[in-house]
Amino acid sequence: MLSHWNPDPGHLPPSPTSSDSSFDEDEVNRRITPCWQSYRNVLKARGFRLDTVRDVKEFYKLRSETQPFDHINSPVSGYLRACEKTDDDALCPDAGLPDNLFRGSRICDGQKIMVKAVHIYSREYDVMRLLSTFPLRRDPMNHTIPVLDLLELVNDDVVLIVMEEWSPQLITDTPCCLRLFLSALRQCIEHAVFLHRNHIAHLDISLRNLLTDYQGRYAYIDYELSRRFNGIPNPCLYGYRGTEVPPECERGERADPYMVDVWALGVLILRASKLTGYYVPELMQVVKPMLQDVPQRRPSIHSVLQAFDCMVSMIGESRLQSTCRGSHS
């Protein structure tokens, strides 16, 4: 049975909570391995198609016009993997993606998509559904990856989250000016403010979970570890296992989830600065308190945004327009 998604909050059914005893918390939040072939027609009926062998061959054929032949013909090439299959209409998963992700396209216009399969009672679906529903969907501070559809396959306890496919490259053109770099960082901070304002902690803020659409927009992905804390004044975590682990979690202490995000965002800014080659002394002064060893001494994410905006306002126009030819590796 397929449930139709409506972004209107009036159509949003109640979400499960951690107090529900009808399902195992760990089980529903574990990555699943769906049978993509069985969902192929369901997606097609909603206007989406998963990548086939033919699609992959055509992609690499076009790419070969701008890439060296040896790169295309490498042993790990997706093209060679596709050529091993004789049925051009067979699905062709990307070996570089987890089993619960599949590339595809929107039938009407060819828009590239990424489909993610999650458990219907997972925290990730709970958060993604909320962020993709009006009025939060329209909030200018909401920098969640755009969701095109949510397909609830209730008989399988599976949801297919259909998202636009964006690039993981932080800065797409080199060199870029400082203004563009700071704009990217501001969107990262702004989205964290938006999440915390709505009682959500992302809990896996990192460069690998930040994408761009090549048009100056940046978005968060991967809400597998995220949690909602409605009605909980002082939430805490135990056994945190995100990408960037703050000192209190390394010590095995209970952690404030919002301060975990602040720490992780500080690390993201440092890594982004190194990646792009930008070293902005004023920015380091904003980051320094975010990385305080004692979480109670870290600023709130709202204070971080205020400090960031104040910093940018003090930088002259000539510096904002300056470029950096740093390494993007």
What features would you highlight for this structure?
alpha+beta, ATP binding, 329 residues
Could you provide a short overview of the structure?
The chain is an alpha+beta fold. It has a domain at 176-324: Transferase(Phosphotransferase), domain 1.
3D structure, described in words:
The radius of gyration is 21 Å and the shape is globular. Helix content is 35%, strand content 14%. The longest helix has 20 residues, at 178-197. The model is unreliable at 16-21 (pLDDT under 50). The chain has helices at residues 25-28, 36-45, 53-63, 69-72, 78-83, 123-131, 178-197, 247-250, 257-276, 281-290, 301-313, 317-320; strands spanning 2-3, 48-50, 101-106, 112-119, 147-153, 158-164, 176-177, 200-201, 210-212, 218-220, 227-228, 323-324. It has twelve helices and twelve strands. The protein has a domain at 176-324: Transferase(Phosphotransferase), domain 1 (Orthogonal Bundle). It is an alpha+beta fold. The chain has a six-stranded antiparallel beta sheet with strand order 1-5-6-4-3-2, sandwiched between helices. Strands 7-12 form a two-stranded antiparallel sheet. Strands 8-11 form a two-stranded antiparallel sheet. Helix 7 packs antiparallel against helix 9, helix 7 (178-197) runs antiparallel to helix 11 (301-313) and helix 10 packs antiparallel against helix 11 (301-313). It comes from Collybia nuda. Residues 1-25 are annotated as: Disordered. GO terms for molecular function: ATP binding; protein kinase activity.
